[in-house]
Amino acid sequence: MNVAALVLAAGSSRRLGQPKQLLEYKGRRLLDVSLDVARSAPFDQLLATVGGAGPEVRDTIDFSGFDVVESVHHTQGCSSSIVSALGQIDSDADGFILLLGDQPEIDPATITELLDAVSGEVPAPIGVCRYDDGIGHPFWFGRATFADLADLHGDKAVWKLIESGRYPVTKVAIEGPTPLDVDTWEEYEALLAQNNDEANL
Q1: Are the C-beta atoms of 42 and 5 separated by less than 8 Å?
Q2: Is the pLDDT at 74 greater than 50, yes or no?
Q3: What is the pTM of this model?
Q4: Is the pLDDT of residue 123 over 80?
Q5: Residue 98, SS3?
Q6: Do 26 and 67 form a contact (C-beta atoms < 8 A)?
Q7: Which of 82, 96, 103, 180 is the most exposed place for a label (fewest CB within 10 A)?
């Protein structure tokens, strides 16, 4: 398949109080680590959305290899970033993997497992990861879903589409808990603590 990656990094970090994309993590910036996850996976195109703190993020983060998409309506939820990016996905792409810019511990092998599960002569329309504690990113969206994605509104609209029953959903079992994402200081501290624990093993 021809596959794009879309990394959502346009959030305004309202609950955190400062751009979470620029938080220090592993001696770098949180978003830099997340972008490297996408670079490590077998993608044909890399896209990332920016919006909240856009100029500072553009000046600080290394977007090498990525097409950067401005999400002009980013305050209306992550679905607006998806809508902004759909037109930038290569016309010959079979679909895209959706990744979160504040979820740096996704294993590239998880992306490969997801792609293996949804690939076929006719790619599956939707694919998700089923971790030990529930459904989580990354998500796969085939081209058959693009029209519905273009009509999304709000912050949880992607989840509503997945749960709508309009498309069969391929669920890939992934061992372990859902990788942490960062919306609050408590979640950031938990991510740092988890990284310290792993470093001390």
Answers
A1: no
A2: no
A3: 0.91
A4: yes
A5: strand
A6: no
A7: 180
Lowest mean pLDDT among 14-18, 24-28, 53-57, 124-128: 14-18
Nearest-angstrom CA–CA distance, 178 and 175: 9
Query: Hey, is 102 helix, strand or coil?
Result: coil
Are the beta carbons of 49 and 85 closer than 8 angstroms? Answer: yes
Residue 145 is classified by DSSP as: G
**List of residues 6+ apart from 158 with CB closer than 8 A:** 78, 79, 82, 98, 139, 149, 152
Considering only CA atoms, give the Rg of the chain: 16
- In sequence order, the 6+-apart residues with CB closer than 8 A to the CB of 109 are none
Indicate the Cα dihedral angle 145, 151, 156, 159, nearest 10°.
Answer: -20
Identity of the residue numbered 148: D
Q: How far apart are CA 94 and CA 140, in angstroms?
A: 10
The encoded tokens of residue 91 equal 């016309």
45 DSSP β-pair partners: 4
Q: What is the pLDDT of residues 91-105, one digit of tens each?
A: 999 999 999 999 999
CATH code assigned to 3-199: 3.90.550.10
